[in-house]
Specification:
Elements: H1 10-24, H2 28-41, H3 46-67, H4 70-97, H5 101-114, H6 119-131, H7 135-148, H8 153-165, H9 169-182, H10 188-205, H11 209-244, H12 257-265, H13 275-282, E1 285-290, E2 295-297, E3 306-320, E4 323-330, E5 335-336, H14 338-342, E6 350-362, H15 364-373, H16 375-399, H17 411-419, E7 424-427, H18 431-439, H19 445-454, E8 456-460, E9 465-467, E10 475-490, E11 494-501, E12 506-507, H20 510-514, E13 521-535, H21 536-543, H22 547-579
Antiparallel strand pairs: 1-6, 2-6, 3-4, 3-5, 3-6, 7-8, 8-13, 9-13, 10-11, 10-12, 10-13
Helix pairs in contact: 1-2, 2-3, 4-5, 4-6, 5-6, 6-7, 6-8, 7-8, 8-9, 9-10, 9-11, 11-12, 11-13, 12-13, 15-16, 16-22
Amino acid sequence: MPEPLSPGSPDLDELVTLARRFADRKRYDEAIDLFQLALRLEPQDLGLRLAVARLRKLKKAQSRATEKDPVEAARDEIRRSSIDASHFVGLAWLYAEKGEEYRALECLEIARVKDPITPSASKLAGRIHYHLQDFDAAAEHLRKALRFNPFDREAAELLGQVEYERRQYGDALSATIDAFLLLPSTEEERAIRLRRRIRTLRHLLGWQGAQVTALLREREETLHIAFDRLQWRRERFRSADSIAEGAPPAFETPQGRLSIAGRLRRCETWDHLTDEQIFKLSSTVTEEVLPAGHMMFTNGSRGADFYLLEEGEIAIQRQTPYGTFSLAVLKAGSIFGEIGFIAPGPRSGDALVSKPARLLRFEGEALTAQAQQWSEFGVQIYWGLWHSLAGKLRSTNEQLKTFFTTDKQPENFLRLRRARESVSGVIEIPSEDKLQMLREQGLSGKELTTLANFSRELRFESGSPLFEEGDEGHEMYVVLEGKVLISKFIPGAGEEALAILERGDFFGEMSLIDGEPRSADARAHAGPVTVLALDQGTIQEMLALDPEASLEFLKLLCRLIAKRLREIDEKVTTWRIFAGVRDENVPV
């Protein structure tokens, strides 16, 4: 029988040495097995026990690192970079206090590479460049610092001084006003100094008091929006944690404008707006809770306000000598009443609360004023409404099919419709004639130039189709000469005219908006017709113009769709009367 190994024996030492080699190579399983074998030879060795415990801990950490989610690994990397950036900013402060500005700037450059959005690095760089009298570089860094942290009063005040040195007095005044607005009420002496600086800059600019007051309000609104946006993101962050724990979202509780902004963000019509634009929109919105039976507005009434239905149900209906007919039943998520905002005129139906409702009301006059003051914002508002109206028009067109028999048309008849030959051709029209027609629609000079340069002129003989229901849509049209009949074939009733379009009218834009097939027929009516054809690229060219021109163009498109919706509502009511179709829930 072999004798047990004694402590310090060559065999035991070699076993431990081999185990440590495996541990150094991070082959923890083999190292643990060897240390456990050594423990069997020397059970009382505390060092061996500690070595096994340590290796098991390292193995567990290695396993967690291997299984770590890539997103979590990226977050760890970001956190480490942020910590490194903070260390380099601290080192830069030490160099700056010693007067070694260039070494400080080198450290700040490394900090910005580690964390490109750290405001502290940009702020210190701006301060150093200011002391070096490199005012252009100082302004650039300070603006970046304020972009990442708009609530830094010291950075705003320093930027005001830098812009003064650069003789950019307007920018200096804006930055100084920001510093004044961010100043705590307890620092009266600093407030007096900032007021004096504001008066000096006002005199240098030659401004009147009203101009300074307007700028003050503008800067105050900008800071409020930044604050609200930050609060909103905080609530969204908290709500994500709450949802993970099974609690309801934090921003569902009433919190004024912050709550409204969060609710607007979930509306499909506004999902393309930026956070800043959402908060701008929220300032025109108020919440309303209405009981069943409440009449919100009536047919023939006027109003520019429109609504977003969040809960409940709204019945859109029309009173006629033959009874009350339903036009639509709106569910949560619907926007309605916007035609009065886009094209002021009489409402085309009653809006009755059929089930208790919670709504957001958009104040039309306030929203119009905001769109005019900030054209980029206005473009996004009308872009959303344009898409919403196009969807409604397509849906309303489809209602006509429901009034009569749903029997399919004989295949031979469909072939005959498709067999009609289109007599058309590309022609040339003098630019002066095109511009004159487009001026009649109130388009701007840039819009006129774009349409004249990028559109094609097409001529269709009388009765010839421009397109038919079910066709793919790649172009929209403007009537130059003649008339276009927009019609829809109603199963069991024949062809029904939806609209007759004349000089200056736009049509065919819905397929460009939603990519769906044509929802109606279009053909030359009572003689030949000449149209301008605008493809998707031309429309994008139009919307890429300066915001003022794009806003007016979108307003025009929205007004044209709104006009057509009013006309089709009349058609729907007429056909409902003709077909004897009533809503069972609407009293006669």
